[in-house]
Amino acid sequence: MPAVYWMQLHPVRLTGLAVLGYFFISLVPLIIHYLKKLATFLWQRSAWATQIMDLLFERVRWNVAPVEEFQWLRLMLFVAVPFPGTGAWTGTIISSVHGMPFWSGLSANFVGVVLAGLLINLLMNLGLKYTTGSGVLLFIVSTIVWGALRGTKKSLN
């Protein structure tokens, strides 16, 4: 029996609170809204800051260039992967650098954080064996959906 039951805590309620807490306490909406404005301000003030910001933005653009196709879906899936460096902070930087509209970037990050929270909840409550099976099933389903989306885009072009 998972530890959350021993402590008489409801896993779904805990996951919901954790997701909301992470999303809003980490200031994701503010970062999405103000990162470009901060970068513009720094570019105008200092040559040193301009070099650093240009390097940062170019590196981010180069590393996430494949995000351009199906931008919202890719960003959401990137944030949903519960590995270090793929969370909402990185997702907000990606959405800001790529110039995604505010609500599009915010919703992709939020759905990604929710999915990551659900995956971690599955891991904690089902155990490694069932979570691995669920992960393999999700990978197969996402591969099929991805192929269908690419096929639909090619047929429209």
UniProtKB/TrEMBL annotation:
<keyword id="KW-1133">Transmembrane helix</keyword>
<dbReference type="Pfam" id="PF06695">
    <property type="entry name" value="Sm_multidrug_ex"/>
</dbReference>
<dbReference type="InterPro" id="IPR009577">
    <property type="entry name" value="Sm_multidrug_ex"/>
</dbReference>
<feature type="transmembrane region" description="Helical">
    <location>
        <begin position="106"/>
        <end position="124"/>
    </location>
</feature>
<protein>
    <recommendedName>
        <fullName>Small multi-drug export protein</fullName>
    </recommendedName>
</protein>
<dbReference type="GO" id="GO:0009507">
    <property type="term" value="C:chloroplast"/>
</dbReference>
<keyword id="KW-0812">Transmembrane</keyword>
<feature type="transmembrane region" description="Helical">
    <location>
        <begin position="130"/>
        <end position="149"/>
    </location>
</feature>
<keyword id="KW-0472">Membrane</keyword>
<feature type="transmembrane region" description="Helical">
    <location>
        <begin position="72"/>
        <end position="94"/>
    </location>
</feature>
<feature type="transmembrane region" description="Helical">
    <location>
        <begin position="12"/>
        <end position="35"/>
    </location>
</feature>
